[in-house]
Write a structure and sequence with these properties.
2 domains, alpha/beta, TIM Barrel, binds flavin mononucleotide, seven-stranded parallel beta sheet, 313 residues
Protein backbone atom coordinates (compact mmCIF):
# COMPACT_ATOMS: atom_id res chain seq x y z
CA UNK A 1 0.00 0.00 0.00
CA UNK A 2 1.45 3.32 -1.16
CA UNK A 3 3.17 5.13 1.71
CA UNK A 4 2.65 2.26 4.15
CA UNK A 5 4.13 -1.10 3.30
CA UNK A 6 7.83 -0.40 3.55
CA UNK A 7 10.25 -3.19 4.46
CA UNK A 8 9.97 -2.52 8.22
CA UNK A 9 6.19 -2.73 8.11
CA UNK A 10 6.21 -5.85 5.97
CA UNK A 11 8.64 -7.47 8.42
CA UNK A 12 6.18 -6.88 11.25
CA UNK A 13 3.27 -8.28 9.24
CA UNK A 14 5.31 -11.36 8.41
CA UNK A 15 6.37 -11.78 12.05
CA UNK A 16 2.69 -12.04 12.95
CA UNK A 17 1.88 -14.49 10.19
CA UNK A 18 1.51 -12.82 6.78
CA UNK A 19 2.50 -15.43 4.21
CA UNK A 20 3.26 -13.24 1.19
CA UNK A 21 4.07 -9.53 1.29
CA UNK A 22 4.13 -6.92 -1.48
CA UNK A 23 5.87 -3.60 -1.93
CA UNK A 24 3.74 -0.60 -2.66
CA UNK A 25 3.23 0.04 -6.36
CA UNK A 26 6.16 1.58 -8.18
CA UNK A 27 6.23 3.19 -11.59
CA UNK A 28 7.84 0.93 -14.21
CA UNK A 29 8.69 4.09 -16.13
CA UNK A 30 10.54 5.62 -13.16
CA UNK A 31 12.35 2.32 -12.56
CA UNK A 32 13.33 2.19 -16.22
CA UNK A 33 14.89 5.66 -15.88
CA UNK A 34 16.84 4.67 -12.76
CA UNK A 35 14.91 6.98 -10.41
CA UNK A 36 16.57 6.65 -7.00
CA UNK A 37 13.38 7.28 -4.96
CA UNK A 38 11.68 4.42 -6.79
CA UNK A 39 14.64 2.14 -6.18
CA UNK A 40 14.46 3.02 -2.46
CA UNK A 41 10.85 1.83 -2.34
CA UNK A 42 12.06 -1.50 -3.68
CA UNK A 43 14.13 -2.19 -0.56
CA UNK A 44 13.93 -5.93 0.13
CA UNK A 45 15.13 -8.04 3.03
CA UNK A 46 16.78 -11.44 2.67
CA UNK A 47 14.47 -12.57 5.47
CA UNK A 48 11.40 -11.90 3.29
CA UNK A 49 10.16 -14.91 1.39
CA UNK A 50 8.16 -14.77 -0.72
CA UNK A 51 7.91 -11.06 -1.44
CA UNK A 52 6.47 -9.38 -4.52
CA UNK A 53 7.38 -6.07 -6.10
CA UNK A 54 4.37 -4.33 -7.55
CA UNK A 55 4.69 -2.40 -10.81
CA UNK A 56 2.29 -0.05 -12.52
CA UNK A 57 2.42 1.31 -16.04
CA UNK A 58 0.91 0.77 -19.46
CA UNK A 59 3.89 0.33 -21.80
CA UNK A 60 4.67 -3.37 -22.37
CA UNK A 61 8.35 -2.78 -23.22
CA UNK A 62 8.98 -0.64 -20.16
CA UNK A 63 7.07 -3.04 -17.94
CA UNK A 64 9.10 -5.95 -19.31
CA UNK A 65 12.26 -4.09 -18.37
CA UNK A 66 10.78 -3.37 -14.94
CA UNK A 67 10.08 -7.07 -14.45
CA UNK A 68 13.72 -7.86 -15.28
CA UNK A 69 14.93 -5.29 -12.74
CA UNK A 70 12.59 -6.73 -10.11
CA UNK A 71 14.07 -10.17 -10.74
CA UNK A 72 17.65 -8.81 -10.51
CA UNK A 73 16.75 -7.18 -7.19
CA UNK A 74 15.92 -10.63 -5.80
CA UNK A 75 12.13 -10.42 -5.52
CA UNK A 76 10.19 -13.66 -5.88
CA UNK A 77 7.10 -12.39 -7.69
CA UNK A 78 6.18 -9.50 -9.97
CA UNK A 79 2.74 -8.11 -9.21
CA UNK A 80 1.07 -5.88 -11.79
CA UNK A 81 -1.29 -3.15 -10.59
CA UNK A 82 -4.53 -2.95 -12.57
CA UNK A 83 -6.58 -1.67 -9.65
CA UNK A 84 -5.36 1.79 -8.72
CA UNK A 85 -8.23 4.28 -9.21
CA UNK A 86 -6.18 7.49 -8.82
CA UNK A 87 -6.60 9.79 -11.86
CA UNK A 88 -2.86 10.54 -11.96
CA UNK A 89 -2.27 6.84 -12.66
CA UNK A 90 -5.32 6.04 -14.79
CA UNK A 91 -4.72 9.21 -16.84
CA UNK A 92 -1.48 7.61 -18.07
CA UNK A 93 -3.38 4.46 -19.04
CA UNK A 94 -2.18 2.48 -15.99
CA UNK A 95 -3.83 1.03 -12.88
CA UNK A 96 -7.56 0.41 -13.22
CA UNK A 97 -7.65 2.10 -16.68
CA UNK A 98 -6.37 -1.22 -18.00
CA UNK A 99 -9.63 -2.88 -16.95
CA UNK A 100 -11.13 -1.10 -19.99
CA UNK A 101 -8.28 -1.90 -22.35
CA UNK A 102 -8.03 -5.64 -22.47
CA UNK A 103 -5.63 -5.77 -25.45
CA UNK A 104 -3.10 -3.44 -23.84
CA UNK A 105 -3.49 -5.15 -20.46
CA UNK A 106 -2.82 -8.55 -22.08
CA UNK A 107 0.20 -7.16 -23.93
CA UNK A 108 1.62 -5.79 -20.66
CA UNK A 109 1.16 -9.07 -18.79
CA UNK A 110 2.55 -11.24 -21.57
CA UNK A 111 5.55 -8.91 -22.06
CA UNK A 112 6.38 -9.18 -18.36
CA UNK A 113 5.86 -12.95 -18.30
CA UNK A 114 8.23 -13.37 -21.24
CA UNK A 115 10.85 -11.04 -19.74
CA UNK A 116 11.22 -12.82 -16.41
CA UNK A 117 11.30 -16.32 -15.01
CA UNK A 118 9.38 -15.06 -11.97
CA UNK A 119 5.63 -15.63 -11.67
CA UNK A 120 3.69 -12.55 -12.76
CA UNK A 121 0.57 -11.94 -10.70
CA UNK A 122 -2.10 -9.33 -11.41
CA UNK A 123 -4.15 -7.17 -9.05
CA UNK A 124 -7.53 -6.23 -10.50
CA UNK A 125 -10.83 -4.74 -9.41
CA UNK A 126 -14.21 -6.25 -10.26
CA UNK A 127 -14.49 -3.87 -13.21
CA UNK A 128 -14.44 -0.22 -14.19
CA UNK A 129 -18.17 0.43 -13.84
CA UNK A 130 -19.81 -2.91 -13.36
CA UNK A 131 -18.74 -5.98 -11.35
CA UNK A 132 -19.88 -8.12 -14.30
CA UNK A 133 -16.68 -7.16 -16.13
CA UNK A 134 -14.44 -9.14 -13.76
CA UNK A 135 -14.64 -12.71 -15.18
CA UNK A 136 -13.66 -11.60 -18.70
CA UNK A 137 -10.77 -9.43 -17.45
CA UNK A 138 -9.61 -12.29 -15.23
CA UNK A 139 -9.76 -14.82 -18.03
CA UNK A 140 -7.86 -12.47 -20.39
CA UNK A 141 -5.13 -12.04 -17.76
CA UNK A 142 -4.86 -15.80 -17.27
CA UNK A 143 -4.49 -16.25 -21.03
CA UNK A 144 -1.82 -13.54 -21.11
CA UNK A 145 0.30 -15.48 -18.61
CA UNK A 146 -0.79 -14.36 -15.13
CA UNK A 147 0.08 -16.94 -12.46
CA UNK A 148 -2.45 -15.68 -9.93
CA UNK A 149 -4.93 -12.84 -9.49
CA UNK A 150 -5.80 -10.66 -6.55
CA UNK A 151 -9.31 -9.26 -6.87
CA UNK A 152 -10.37 -6.18 -4.94
CA UNK A 153 -14.14 -6.65 -4.77
CA UNK A 154 -15.04 -3.13 -5.86
CA UNK A 155 -15.29 -1.40 -9.22
CA UNK A 156 -13.09 1.54 -10.13
CA UNK A 157 -16.17 3.77 -9.88
CA UNK A 158 -16.61 2.72 -6.24
CA UNK A 159 -13.00 3.55 -5.42
CA UNK A 160 -12.85 2.62 -1.69
CA UNK A 161 -16.50 3.10 -0.73
CA UNK A 162 -19.56 0.90 -0.90
CA UNK A 163 -19.67 -2.79 -0.22
CA UNK A 164 -17.33 -5.47 -1.47
CA UNK A 165 -19.06 -7.68 -4.08
CA UNK A 166 -18.36 -11.22 -2.95
CA UNK A 167 -20.44 -12.64 -5.83
CA UNK A 168 -18.15 -10.97 -8.38
CA UNK A 169 -15.09 -12.52 -6.73
CA UNK A 170 -16.81 -15.91 -6.78
CA UNK A 171 -17.45 -15.50 -10.52
CA UNK A 172 -13.74 -14.82 -11.07
CA UNK A 173 -12.85 -17.95 -9.10
CA UNK A 174 -15.14 -19.93 -11.42
CA UNK A 175 -13.83 -18.26 -14.59
CA UNK A 176 -10.14 -19.08 -14.19
CA UNK A 177 -7.98 -22.02 -13.16
CA UNK A 178 -5.18 -19.96 -11.53
CA UNK A 179 -5.33 -19.09 -7.81
CA UNK A 180 -7.55 -16.13 -6.92
CA UNK A 181 -6.87 -14.07 -3.83
CA UNK A 182 -9.86 -12.15 -2.47
CA UNK A 183 -9.40 -8.61 -1.23
CA UNK A 184 -11.50 -5.89 0.35
CA UNK A 185 -12.77 -5.02 3.81
CA UNK A 186 -11.14 -7.92 5.63
CA UNK A 187 -11.05 -6.51 9.14
CA UNK A 188 -11.89 -9.47 11.38
CA UNK A 189 -12.38 -13.22 11.29
CA UNK A 190 -15.99 -12.95 10.10
CA UNK A 191 -15.08 -10.83 7.08
CA UNK A 192 -12.18 -13.18 6.33
CA UNK A 193 -14.59 -16.14 6.38
CA UNK A 194 -16.99 -14.32 4.05
CA UNK A 195 -14.14 -13.77 1.62
CA UNK A 196 -12.99 -17.40 1.79
CA UNK A 197 -16.58 -18.52 1.13
CA UNK A 198 -16.16 -17.15 -2.43
CA UNK A 199 -13.81 -20.07 -3.07
CA UNK A 200 -10.76 -17.77 -3.12
CA UNK A 201 -7.47 -19.58 -2.48
CA UNK A 202 -6.24 -16.84 -0.18
CA UNK A 203 -7.01 -13.42 1.19
CA UNK A 204 -5.20 -10.10 0.91
CA UNK A 205 -5.48 -7.50 3.64
CA UNK A 206 -4.97 -3.78 3.16
CA UNK A 207 -6.39 -1.18 5.53
CA UNK A 208 -7.34 -3.80 8.12
CA UNK A 209 -3.66 -4.30 8.96
CA UNK A 210 -2.67 -0.63 9.19
CA UNK A 211 -1.63 0.04 12.77
CA UNK A 212 -2.55 -3.57 13.47
CA UNK A 213 0.10 -5.96 12.10
CA UNK A 214 -0.92 -8.51 14.74
CA UNK A 215 -4.16 -9.01 12.78
CA UNK A 216 -2.25 -11.60 10.73
CA UNK A 217 -1.85 -13.78 13.83
CA UNK A 218 -5.64 -13.88 14.13
CA UNK A 219 -6.02 -14.71 10.44
CA UNK A 220 -3.40 -17.42 10.67
CA UNK A 221 -5.36 -19.11 13.43
CA UNK A 222 -8.31 -19.29 11.04
CA UNK A 223 -6.23 -21.19 8.46
CA UNK A 224 -4.64 -23.41 11.09
CA UNK A 225 -7.92 -24.16 12.86
CA UNK A 226 -6.58 -22.98 16.23
CA UNK A 227 -8.20 -20.52 18.65
CA UNK A 228 -7.31 -16.90 17.77
CA UNK A 229 -4.63 -15.39 20.01
CA UNK A 230 -5.80 -12.48 22.17
CA UNK A 231 -4.91 -9.10 20.67
CA UNK A 232 -1.91 -7.42 22.30
CA UNK A 233 -2.49 -5.19 25.31
CA UNK A 234 -2.00 -1.45 24.92
CA UNK A 235 1.56 -1.53 26.36
CA UNK A 236 2.37 -4.39 23.97
CA UNK A 237 0.97 -2.38 21.05
CA UNK A 238 3.16 0.53 22.02
CA UNK A 239 6.18 -1.80 21.99
CA UNK A 240 5.25 -2.96 18.50
CA UNK A 241 4.92 0.66 17.38
CA UNK A 242 8.39 1.42 18.76
CA UNK A 243 9.78 -1.63 16.96
CA UNK A 244 8.30 -0.27 13.72
CA UNK A 245 9.74 3.20 14.41
CA UNK A 246 13.21 1.73 14.91
CA UNK A 247 12.89 -0.36 11.75
CA UNK A 248 11.75 2.60 9.63
CA UNK A 249 14.58 4.80 10.97
CA UNK A 250 17.10 2.04 10.26
CA UNK A 251 15.83 2.01 6.67
CA UNK A 252 15.62 5.72 5.94
CA UNK A 253 17.59 7.48 8.69
CA UNK A 254 15.89 9.20 11.61
CA UNK A 255 14.85 12.42 9.85
CA UNK A 256 13.10 10.85 6.87
CA UNK A 257 12.06 7.81 8.88
CA UNK A 258 10.18 9.83 11.47
CA UNK A 259 8.42 11.84 8.77
CA UNK A 260 7.23 8.50 7.46
CA UNK A 261 6.25 7.40 10.95
CA UNK A 262 3.93 10.38 11.50
CA UNK A 263 1.19 8.70 9.51
CA UNK A 264 2.08 5.09 10.33
CA UNK A 265 2.10 5.80 14.08
CA UNK A 266 -1.30 7.52 14.07
CA UNK A 267 -2.88 4.25 12.88
CA UNK A 268 -1.67 2.47 16.03
CA UNK A 269 -3.85 4.73 18.19
CA UNK A 270 -6.90 4.36 15.96
CA UNK A 271 -9.33 2.43 18.10
CA UNK A 272 -7.84 3.02 21.52
CA UNK A 273 -9.88 5.04 24.02
CA UNK A 274 -8.68 8.59 24.67
CA UNK A 275 -6.33 8.49 21.69
CA UNK A 276 -7.37 11.66 19.83
CA UNK A 277 -4.61 13.78 21.36
CA UNK A 278 -1.94 11.14 20.82
CA UNK A 279 -2.97 10.84 17.17
CA UNK A 280 -2.60 14.59 16.81
CA UNK A 281 0.82 14.47 18.42
CA UNK A 282 1.95 11.95 15.82
CA UNK A 283 2.08 14.74 13.25
CA UNK A 284 4.86 16.40 15.28
CA UNK A 285 7.14 13.39 15.61
CA UNK A 286 10.74 14.25 14.74
CA UNK A 287 12.89 11.74 16.60
CA UNK A 288 12.70 8.21 17.96
CA UNK A 289 12.84 9.77 21.42
CA UNK A 290 9.64 11.69 20.60
CA UNK A 291 8.00 8.39 19.65
CA UNK A 292 9.18 6.72 22.85
CA UNK A 293 7.85 9.64 24.92
CA UNK A 294 4.52 9.52 23.09
CA UNK A 295 4.04 5.81 23.75
CA UNK A 296 5.06 6.15 27.43
CA UNK A 297 2.72 9.08 27.91
CA UNK A 298 -0.15 7.19 26.32
CA UNK A 299 0.37 4.20 28.63
CA UNK A 300 0.62 6.44 31.73
CA UNK A 301 -2.49 8.33 30.74
CA UNK A 302 -4.42 5.07 30.35
CA UNK A 303 -3.06 3.67 33.59
CA UNK A 304 -4.23 6.72 35.49
CA UNK A 305 -7.72 6.46 34.00
CA UNK A 306 -7.82 2.66 34.36
CA UNK A 307 -5.68 1.13 37.11
CA UNK A 308 -6.29 -2.38 35.72
CA UNK A 309 -4.57 -1.68 32.42
CA UNK A 310 -2.60 -4.92 32.27
CA UNK A 311 -5.52 -7.25 31.46
CA UNK A 312 -7.16 -4.64 29.20
CA UNK A 313 -7.12 -5.78 25.58
C1 LIG B 1 -3.55 4.50 1.23
C2 LIG B 1 -3.74 3.33 0.29
C3 LIG B 1 -2.71 2.96 -0.54
C4 LIG B 1 -2.86 1.87 -1.40
N1 LIG B 1 -1.82 1.52 -2.21
C5 LIG B 1 -1.93 0.42 -2.99
C6 LIG B 1 -0.84 -0.02 -3.79
O1 LIG B 1 0.23 0.59 -3.83
N2 LIG B 1 -1.02 -1.15 -4.52
C7 LIG B 1 -2.20 -1.88 -4.49
O2 LIG B 1 -2.30 -2.91 -5.13
N3 LIG B 1 -3.23 -1.45 -3.77
C8 LIG B 1 -3.14 -0.34 -3.01
N4 LIG B 1 -4.19 0.06 -2.26
C9 LIG B 1 -5.46 -0.74 -2.29
C10 LIG B 1 -5.41 -1.84 -1.23
O3 LIG B 1 -4.34 -2.71 -1.47
C11 LIG B 1 -6.69 -2.66 -1.23
O4 LIG B 1 -6.86 -3.28 -2.48
C12 LIG B 1 -7.94 -1.86 -0.94
O5 LIG B 1 -7.71 -0.90 0.07
C13 LIG B 1 -9.08 -2.79 -0.51
O6 LIG B 1 -8.66 -3.66 0.51
P1 LIG B 1 -8.85 -3.32 2.08
O7 LIG B 1 -10.32 -3.09 2.29
O8 LIG B 1 -8.29 -4.53 2.78
O9 LIG B 1 -8.07 -2.08 2.35
C14 LIG B 1 -4.08 1.16 -1.43
C15 LIG B 1 -5.13 1.54 -0.58
C16 LIG B 1 -4.98 2.61 0.26
C17 LIG B 1 -6.13 3.01 1.14
Amino acid sequence: MAGNTNLAYRRLCRKYGAEITTTEMVSAQALHHGDTKTQAILERGDDEFPVAAQLFGSDPTILANGARIVEELGFHLVDFNMGCPVPKITGGGGGSALLRDSIRASDCVSAMSEATSLPVTVKIRTGWNSPNEAPQVASDMENAGASALTVHGRTRTQKYSGKVEYAAIQQVVQAVSIPVIGNGDIVDLDSAKLMLATGASGIAVGRGALGRPWFFAELRSLFEGTPPPPPPSIPERMQILLELGKGVCALYGEQRGMKNMRRLAADFFKSSPGSALSRKKCSHLNTLKDLQALTEHFILQLESSRPNLAPER
